[in-house]
Amino acid sequence: MSHRTCTNSTPIAQAEFTAFVSDKEFPCVGAKSALNRDRIRFGRFGTLGSCSESSRLLQSLKAFSREFAQPGDVPVSFVAMFDPMDVDEVEFENLLWQQLQSAHELDVEQGCAWNESVSSDPARKDFSFSLGGRAYFVVGLHPAASRLARRAPFPCLVFNFHDQFESLKATGKYQSMQTAIRARDIALQGTVNPVLARFGEASEALQYSGRAIDSRWACPFHSRELENA
Q1: Does position 197 have pLDDT exceeding 60, yes or no?
Q2: pLDDT (tens digit, 9 = 90+) per residue, 108-133?
Q3: Are the C-beta atoms of 162 and 136 separated by less than 8 Å?
């Protein structure tokens, strides 16, 4: 695994990500809607998996959560952009969970409890990641992703509010959006990502990295709250 320092400034990196989502073949209509309505917030970080980035990531997500305390039914996301690195899918997955583990441990040290509406056990179907007391569905993107829809120009972690997904699901908007995304994904790559499950039917941890894994996969994340229970 090799790393290279990112020479792109935040505006350039943001422009590259925007171009990635804006491409007419990009399948996620939710991300396109958020972008078109100025409801994507960006953060520029260093090396993915670095403990030194956890404090800024946590602070950024807390600010994002405050800004969208009531996100409504228009999709909104926080995109954490990291330095380019040459990693394969397994390496990226390990770094993704390493970053989330580090941020979680800092969150606990700062006295913040896991969001009570979701489980902190990644084996459970009601699991969702929690930082700053807010639950998130996390989408990992990187250049070596086998799924074209996940092949961003550099590593990114996209944080989406779990409660917004629940709200969209209750109104039926999530189902129609998911149908549109799957149709566009098939048009782009010929198949639907095999790890995709309907929201709430399997642990969403299976989907975070985008790698083709199944229910036998063991998530490397360990909740400090479960360890102390």
Answers
A1: no
A2: 999 999 999 999 999 999 999 999 99
A3: yes
Cα(96)–Cα(209) distance, integer angstroms:
7
Per-residue model confidence as pLDDT tens digits over 10-33 = 889 999 999 999 999 999 999 999
Whether the Cβ atoms of residue 168 and residue 178 lie closer than 8 Å to each other? no
Query: What distances in angstroms separate CA 177 from CA 51, 81, 151, one per listed residue?
Result: 35, 25, 21
201, 195 contact by CB (below 8 A):
no
pTM exceeds cut of 0.85? yes
Question: Residue 82 above 80 pLDDT?
Answer: yes
Question: Could you give the CA distance from residue 199 to residue 164 in angstroms, rounded to a whole number?
Answer: 12
pLDDT tens digits for range 172-193: 887 888 888 889 989 999 987 7
Q: What is the 3-state secondary structure (H, E, C) of the chain?
A: CEECCCCCCHHHHHHHHHHHHHCCCCCCHHHHHHHHCCCEEEEECCCCCCHHHHHHHHHHHHHHHHHCCCCCCCCCEEEEECCCEECCHHHHHHHHHHHHHHHHHHHHHCCCCCCCCCECCCCCCCECEEECCEEEEEEEECCCCCCHHHCCCCCEEEEEEHHHHHHHHHHCHHHHHHHHHHHHHHHHHCCCCCCCCCCCCCCHHHHCCCCCCCCCCCCCCCCHHHHHC
